Amino acid sequence: MRRTGASIILLAGLIVLPGRVLAQSAAAPAASVDPVAEVRAKLAAAEAAHPGNTPEIADALMALVQRERITRQIGPETDALAQRALDVSSAAAGKDSILYASALASRAKLYVSEDRPEQGRPLAEQALEIARRVAPGTNDMAMVADALDKICWALHDKPCALHAAEEAVAAIRASGPGNDLYLASMLQDMAQIQLTMQDVAGARAAMIESAAIVDRQDKPAPSMAVLESNAGAFFSRQNQPDEAMVHLKKSLALSEKLYGPDSVQVAYATRNLGGLDEKLGRSRESAEQYDRALALFRKWYGPTHTYTANAEEDYARALAQWGTLPQALDLALHAQKSYREYSTLCLRVMPMRQALELVKSTSTPVNVALSIVARHPELGTAAVYQEEIRSRGLVAEEMARRQASLNRSNDPQIAELLKELDNERSAAIKSSGSTATGAENLQAYNDSTVRMEHIERTLAERSLAFRADQRNRTVALDDVRAHLPQHSVLISYVNYLRHPLESRDPNARSEWSYLAFVLHPGSERIRVYDLGAAKPIDDLVTSARAAADAEAHGGGMGARRNERQYREAGEVLRRKIWDPLRADAAGARLALVVADGVLNLIPFAGLPEGNGYLVEHGPVIHMLTSERDLVPAEDTAKKTGLLAIGSPQFNLASNAEPAAPLRGGTVSCDEFHTLDFHPLPGSGSEVSEIAQAWRRWNRSETASLVTGADATRGRFLSEAEHNRILHVATHAFLLDQSCGNGNPLMHSGLVFAGANSNREDSILTAQQIASLDLSGVDWAVLSACNTGNGELHDGEGVLGLERAFRVAGARSVIMTLWPVDDKITHQFMHNLYAERLGRHASTSDAVWNASRSLLLERRAAGKSTHPWYWAGFVGSGAWE
Questions:
Q1: What is the DSSP letter of 821?
Q2: C-beta of residue 800 within 8 angstroms of C-beta of residue 666
Q3: DSSP single-letter state for residue 651
Q4: Residue 436 near residue 670 (C-beta atoms within 8 A)
Q5: For 586, how many CA atoms within 13 A lie in the half-sphere containing its CB?
Q6: In the prediction, which pLDDT does 738 show?
Q7: For a disulfide at 346, which of 118, 194, 524, 837, Cβ 3.0-4.6 Å?
Q8: How confident is the model at residue 654 (pLDDT cuts 50, 70, 90)?
Q9: Residue of 664, 674, 198, 665 whose CA lies nearest to 436
Q10: Is 499 helix (H, G, I), strand (E, B) or coil?
């Protein structure tokens, strides 16, 4: 899934400066004057008048860094100047001074200009902590908060950006009159963020206040060119074209007058004008503006900067709508590559939550490319498919590489950090809950989350030193093709935003849609299937899952009705997503499927076919989290043995509670803290039989059977990293959206012995699982409810227990897509291990045959054949 991004550039704060630096930099440079030389001369004068490590020199250094950033004359000297400003500030006023905080903020903003915002974030956060203590309610504090705003915006962490912008606005207001244009710029920042967070009323109020401030000015100021451009872009997005055009024409005139016709400021004005002309259906004028803007962005930022990529994406989208498809495709693919490489570098030092926010908003140009090849596959299907492959699962890939490198380290400091992280996770679990649990708990949860992210970042930075391969693993289409097994077919579904093509209608709208790429081993041909709008498909998945949920909780009542409703939805769904490409799958023994969007949540084996289901016909279907699963990273770990843990004694005082028919489910945060976990007697028999089968068919390897009061979290953690097969039969939990928007791997987990009396020490979150060293684990069998569910994230798929085990290094995961019955799960697992151990079946065949056997057994016994009973068990990862 790929979301569309906002097209407004946040630039207002780059020119308006507060405090001492403002006094040295506010004058507009004439187009004929070298603006950098002018400020460099002021630095020389400060050095002559105030030699040594003095505040005056620190201010002059920051002013020069600022001027070089604004004019895009950035180089190694700029980095040296920023570092010198830090050194001078520290010597002149100490590291707990507003001068030093300002120097940190200056360096942080330079990282933004260099397209390295992830490097600047810890500096900006440190600067704001200092400023809050030593200079609250001042312009200097506003400048520092402004830096964090810009960095968080560049990283697409909108809540962080909004909070920083609000702090900056409050500080400017508190500092008194005389800072009108700086207030106007920060109000625009705030409006931009609020608009992307759907706070239209708040955004409009902030932008109107900003525009009123600009209108009151007696004479033009250098910042007004950007302020007018941002106002124009805002009103264009609000469908007020006349108001937008007034502001944008003012911006262009001011930019050309104050900075010259080839300045970077003109690039922003013309890009926004191009967007407005595009909305008005003026294709010729729009193309002229976009073309001029793109040339200027390439001149000032270079061909791969994200600002250039942003301009390329806008131009590509417009060209595609006008029918200039080859050029549009080239621009879109180049923009996507630039964004992907930028994101990949940023992710290396980012906590998971922040990483997901970034990737969600930087994978949008591929939507244009997908829209083109869906209708015109002859224009470049291979290039588009390769970029889609490379852009999938970036966060999971980074987390796996990071964890693998940490696992190779023997650094005691890393071990201590990991311990601190685990403590913060426990604190977050203890305090997690909705606002209904109290403001103190909510604040404690937020505080723990902040501390966890600081530790995550430190660990990420440390992990870089232990990476066996410092390069990122870039999988090419040829790699995927070379690793496809014989007699197989690869089917890659993509949920994307389809843009209008070859249409002069300015009111044409984009629509979420699905397509599928199909690839055969040894063949250069790639087929593309346009599967149509996403909403009808998504609705069918929802209906089928609702029918499964009804059977799960129906107690046997209404079974025929529930199966009929499932089949009705599933039949139509099959016709939409499987039948169009059925001919391409004909003859294949194995279909390797990469799902996207809500297609991750439906078992393909359970799609109706005739009077039965797909599981009764060919080919075998196996799920991949991404195409990278076919090109495994080097894993030299060799492990042996089985760990089978099940039937935990959740209440250590007594286990006389009634048995639970289902093995967990989705609950709210409030419910989770009061929920009692009931015994699962079927899981005890299940793991005992698996251990016996293991000893019978695999006498060369050990089997560790753990049940009852011994089935603790600590026991699992102590043994999981030493076995080749992990089988966990217990309750799982999946928390709903009442738990906030933190790390999604904190919202699901497994439950172990003692959970009813000591919750924090008896549950294991997906995030904790992801930090284990499970390299060398062939199978992780998660015999519990909803272990294949989690939070759907654009470009990443489902983030939950399955993904956690894969990140930790497990090659294959056997999971469930909905609540499962205790006794039926026992039966499925019996079939699964009979296939794997007794018949030496591959993972794909073992899961497929076990599901089919369960279906046939129920049919022969005259029982309901609803897919809820047998289809929810799915294999993911390595198919072997």
A1: B
A2: no
A3: S
A4: yes
A5: 6
A6: 59
A7: 118
A8: low
A9: 674
A10: coil
Which residue spans within 199-351 are E strands per DSSP?
none
Contacts of residue 45, defined as CB under 8 A and 6 or more positions apart, other chains included, come to 60
* In the predicted structure, residue 731 carries a pLDDT above the cut 90: yes
- What single letter denotes the amino acid at residue 80? A
Which of these, 832, 860, 829, 862, lies nearest to 845 by C-alpha position?
A: 832
CA distances from 80 to 20, 86, 87 (A): 21, 10, 10
What mean pLDDT comes out for the span 489-515? Answer: 93
Query: Cβ contacts of residue 305 below 8 Å, gap of 6+?
Result: 115, 297, 338
| pLDDT band at residue 446 under the 50/70/90 scheme | confident
Confidence at residue 665, expressed as pLDDT on a 0 to 100 scale = 66
Residues 6+ apart with CB under 8 A from 692: none
Q: Which of 773, 644, 654, 749 is nearest to 706 (CA)?
A: 644
Identify the residue whose tokens are 């070298």.
34
Say if residue 463's pLDDT is above 80: yes
> Is-contact 104 86, C-beta < 8 A?
yes
Average pLDDT over residues 113-140: 97
Q: Return all residues near 825 (Cβ < 8 A) that are at least 6 apart.
A: 663, 682, 683, 686, 729, 783, 816, 873
pLDDT band at 149 (very low <50, low <70, confident <90, very high): very high
Average pLDDT, the chain: 90
Mean pLDDT of the region 557-580? 96
| Helical (H) or strand (E) element with 495 | strand 488-498
Could you tell me which of 317, 358, 366, 316 has the C-alpha nearest to residue 337?
366
pLDDT > 70 fraction of the chain, expressed in percent and rounded: 91
Residue 262 makes CB contacts below 8 A (sequence gap 6+) with 296, 299
Q: What is the mean pLDDT of residues 217-230?
A: 91
Amino acid identity, position 295: A
Beta partners for residue 488, in sequence order: 590
Q: 142 pLDDT band (50/70/90 cuts)? A: very high
Which of 369, 303, 360 is closest to 336 using CA atoms? 369
Is 111 within 8 Å of 120 (Cβ atoms)? yes
- Ranges of beta strands (E only) in 391-535 are 488-498, 511-519, 526-533
Which tokens in the block code for residue 723? 């076995």
Report yes or no: 600 and 629 within 8 Å, Cβ to Cβ.
Answer: no
- H or E stretch at 38: helix 35-49
- Model's pTM, two decimal places? 0.92
What is the distance, to the nearest Å, from the Cα of residue 98 to the centroid of all Cα atoms in its chain?
35
Segment 660-686, tens digit of pLDDT: 665 566 777 777 777 889 999 999 999
User: Quick check: 409 and 443 in contact, CB under 8 A?
Assistant: no
Bridge pairing between strands 763-765 and 748-751: antiparallel
Rounded Cα–Cα distance for residues 563 and 859 (Å): 13
b/e burial code for range 305-318 (CB count within 10 A of at least 16 → b): bbbbbbbbbbbbbb
Measured distance CA(800)–CA(817) in Å, rounded: 11
Torsion of CA 418, 424, 425, 430, to 10 degrees: 150
**CA 748, CA 799: separation in Å to the nearest integer?**
9
**Rounded to whole angstroms, how far apart are CA atoms 17 and 140?**
9
CA dihedral 548, 666, 790, 538 (to 10 degrees): 40
Whole-angstrom distance, CA of residue 426 vs CA of residue 414: 18
Going by the DSSP 8-state scheme, the letter that residue 627 receives in this structure is G
Rg of the chain over all Cα atoms, to the nearest angstrom: 29
pLDDT at 473: 58
> Is the confidence at residue 29, as pLDDT, over 80?
no
> Which stretch of DSSP H or E encloses residue 591?
strand 590-594
